[in-house]
Description:
Blueprint: H1 23-40, H2 42-45, H3 55-60, H4 64-95, H5 97-105, H6 110-146, H7 161-178, H8 180-186, H9 191-200, H10 205-241, E1 251-255, H11 266-281, E2 286-293, E3 303-308, E4 321-329, H12 331-335, E5 339-342, E6 356-360, H13 361-367, E7 377-380, E8 387-395, E9 410-414, E10 424-429, H14 434-448, E11 458-459, H15 460-467, H16 469-503, H17 505-513, H18 518-547, H19 563-589, H20 593-597
Parallel strand pairs: 4-9, 6-8
Antiparallel strand pairs: 1-10, 1-11, 2-4, 2-10, 3-4, 3-7, 5-8, 6-9, 7-8
Amino acid sequence: METKVRGAHFFRVLGRLQxxxxxxxxxxxxxAIAARLEKQYPNSNTGRSANVISFHQDLTGDVRxxxxxxxxxxxxxxxxxxxxxxxxxxxxxxxxxxxxAIRTALGASRSRLVRQLLAEGxxxxxxxxxxxxxxxxxxxxxxxxxGPQDVPRLNEVQxxxxxxxxxLAVAIVSTLLFALVPALQVTRPNVNASLxxxxxxxxxxxxxxLRGVLVVSQVALSLLLLAGAxxxxxxxxxxxxxxxxxxxxxxxxxxxxxPRGKYPEPExxxxxxxxxxxxxxxxxxxxxxxxxxPLPFSGNDSSQSLWIAxxxxxxxxxxxxxxxxxxxxDYFRALRIPLLAGRVFDRRDGKDSPRVAIVNxxxxxxxxxxxxxxxxxxxxxxxxxxxxxxxVGVVGSSRHDSLAVPxxxxxxLPQSQDPGRVSxxxxxxxxxxxxxxxxxxxxxIQGMDRDVxxxxxxxxxxxxxxxxxxxxxxxxxxxxxxxxxxxxxxIGIYGVIAYSVAQRTREIGIRMALGAQRGDVLRMILxxxxxxxxxGLTIGLIGAFALTRRMGSLLYGVSAHDxxxxxxxxxLLAGAxxxxxxxxxxxxxxVDPMVALRYE
Length: 600
């Protein structure tokens, strides 16, 4: 490596810290070195800095926000499930309140009764944990297949002893937290009140309030998850609808590497391409073909600092960067990148011709906002002298890294003047059978040189789809958790209202015997349910506006406070609450007053 070059600011190095040295200390030392170099070499190092991060942070940096959102979703679903189980245990214990009161009157201690109720709750939790582990074991392969490749160690995910121990620990802790409250609630030493309440068949006010609080929490947490899932769904839809700046339909791409050991000189590489590309373009079914380095959505990027000839030079260290792409053949026609002004590369742009470049629309907007760029010269920074190239064309801007990243200022150089750079081939085809094209490509390459690797053809749409893998994964995971949360919340609402109707059967019968109509009973039950749901929706909406802003880095083209999403979620949860309420409400309307009056 040339040690005297000071214009290369793209290096990333890997090192191991000495024992006792923290990442923060290393970062401070690197910053001090960068500051010293800036003073010593102002022409090349002005504004340049150095940063030190942990290797773990480098690996997980892009996926960390998504993993934290998924972790929060798992925690919320756990809370909703625990609230559901707590409601079930409370209802069951309340139904046994008379039995518990009798046992207390006969001398049973409160601690013994609490232990029995906790044991019943623990049994439910362990059965649930076992079922959850079986479901997790079945879904691990599904998780791997849908997960993006850039999630670190995703292929190592498995159900092992640590996962089993963790699941059992969560089951035990959940039991202590959510089964203890109902157990303490129904074992309070108030025997006479419990016996009288059991005779009336009524519902204890405190038990009713506690069940209401649990359902409110379920509704609120469900709204948080549904709002997050809705935002990710809308964001993903926006990404899918984003124009990449070219037409990927019927375009296939392939990695292509010339063996540098056999073709070490730029002139040899240029001659290879001059013989190679026309043979590929003549293959049956090829409408247009070209080459590029880097290719959009290939995971690679290249940039270089430059300046505009004739403008005041701010100094080498202050030159702006622009992405650069080396292209060959009919690259722009193959991708259908529109020509907006000037011309594309052609035979005039040979190795001995004046150096030329094509810029994209984003480049023009940044460097020539009120001027015609054609005929202007770019001064591209090089290790020795700057390379001067004339702008001969302007093309539409295209996205390179991700659909979520706006097009960058970009300039293109012809492979005939910048040999050895092309690393990808692109073909616009009129045939659907890629196997035939693959075989033809193999024949051409092996006919020219058997030492050249035959690449595999990949549809460009698939490469673009790969950039959507992480957003799709986030959407599917959070959407799945939100669907489970919605189902659990609906079950919770149904359970509370159904239990309330059963406990108030005698009261309902008295009301109907005194002249209440079925519609009055329906409105009474719906009012009880909608008050609970309304409180939960209000709390959940406040929480959603507070928490979804943390998802900003995961969203594209949608605000974290999108009113349409939050409004739709409110309607969805309110509708689920109405449906969950209507079934027990119909049962209440069908109560026979004479039967109800005899109900215990």
